[in-house]
Automatic annotation (TrEMBL):
Family assignment from sequence similarity: Belongs to the GTP cyclohydrolase I type 2/NIF3 family.
InterPro entries per UniProt: DUF34/NIF3, DUF34/NIF3_sf
Keyword Hydrolase: no
Pfam families documented for this protein: DUF34_NIF3 (PF01784)
Domain of life: Bacteria
Official protein name in the record: Nif3-like dinuclear metal center hexameric protein
Key words, A-Z: Metal-binding
Length: 252
């Protein structure tokens, strides 16, 4: 089966409510390739490695969380950017990217998909007054030690996370996939036992330690692998086309 590119993009844009979410990059179709889609390759970031994998797999469209054209970046098409775009255009492959819309979606979003795998029951946004609701708060069905919970995270994500152990049982959890370490203050205010994100800043250690909570940095890439997979699977079901997730390992 094949589907028109325009129809697939329209469905994805609508499903993620992309036009109504302010972001740091354009969401949706970033590079236009051939007019029909038979096979989607998804991945976290539109790196050269992922593009080359899509070429080898004879994919028509690449679906990612981290695409191109970020605010503040050099707009010139030179170097790495030129090589990536040249490969896409030479092989007539489209690039479809969703950043914050894929973080916050209630079904296929990175945050809810990670919670499902870690056994966290979602209660709601960490910041109810924030219209983007990027970070979430929830609870575990039973209290775990920080060591027990970090072992679960390591098993699910396939990598050893960084842990600051607050030395108390973990029941209430706040989290934000990717580079969400800045939400730790809101997590502390919400009364969580543990805050989990992808990355850590130097001051994150002190915030967690001095406020008596545990903190886990589980990897930006590792925590954001699941939303794009879920979105790719949704589009594949909707249009009866092929979808393959390709994980290009990244230790960050």
């Amino acid at each position: 089966m094949t589907i028109e590119l325009s129809a697939l993009v329209k469905r994805a844009d609508h499903y993620l409510n992309a036009a109504k979410i302010a972001d740091y990059c354009p969401n949706g179709l970033q590079v236009e390739g051939r007019g029909h889609v038979r096979k989607i390759i998804s991945g976290v970031t539109a790196s050269q490695e992922l593009i080359d994998a899509a070429v080898a797999a004879e994919a028509d469209l690449i679906l990612v969380h981290h695409g191109y054209f970020w605010k503040g970046e050099n707009p010139c098409v030179v170097g790495m950017k030129q090589r990536r775009l040249k490969t896409l255009l030479r092989h007539d492959i489209s690039l479809l990217a969703y950043h914050l819309p894929l973080d916050v979606h209630p079904l296929v979003g990175n945050n809810v998909q990670l919670a499902e795998r870690l056994g966290i029951a979602v209660e709601g946004p960490l910041e109810p007054e924030n219209s983007r609701n990027v970070a979430l708060v929830g609870s575990l069905p039973e209290a775990l030690s920080a060591a027990e919970f970090v072992a679960r995270v390591a098993s699910v994500l396939g990598r050893e996370p960084l842990l600051v152990d607050g030395q108390k049982p973990i029941r209430r959890v706040g989290w934000c996939t990717g580079g969400g370490q800045g939400y730790i203050d809101q997590a502390i205010a919400a009364g969580v036992d543990l805050y989990l994100t992808g990355e850590a800043s130097e001051q994150t250690f002190h915030s967690a330690r001095e406020n008596g909570i545990s903190f886990i940095a589980a990897g930006h890439h590792a925590t954001e692998r699941y939303g794009v997979q879920a979105l790719g699977d949704y589009l594949a079901r909707e249009f009866n086309i092929e979808h393959v997730f390709t994980d290009c390992p990244n230790p960050i």
